[in-house]
Amino acid sequence: MEATGYTCVDKGIIEGKLGTKPEAFFYIRLRLKDVWPIAKYIQTYGEVKLFSMIEILYDYVSAPINPYHHSWDQCGLHASTFDKAKGQKVYRKEINDILKDFKTGYQLSKEGHVIELPPTGLESLVSEPISTDKPENIDE
Known about the structure:
The chain has helices at residues 22-30, 38-41, 47-60, 84-99, 123-127, and strands at 5-8, 12-15, 63-64, 68-70, 76-78, 82-83, 106-108, 114-116.
């Protein structure tokens, strides 16, 4: 809602962070066409488009802090303040439940990058900090 905005019967169009033309927003930032609206184009997404959209949406997702239902004329849910960290946490959980079953398995990192899951049994090796007396030899 914070990103996409909404329309209110009393206040009109409440613009979100994606602006009034999300298609242009995504094209400018990703240089990808035919990605918005997602429901219309998702069946045409290749891996690049899919992962790019997952990552950029992570950057803009948030959870409403004070949602309320505007019942006049069935207007719908409204909010004016948002919690980005909470929204990202929920989004990551939901997306990761799907990504783990995509091809060889992927996950959305806390930094907002889609990464391949390590092979089963090697998870702790990948997540453990590297112990060395020569940290200058380690690439991040």
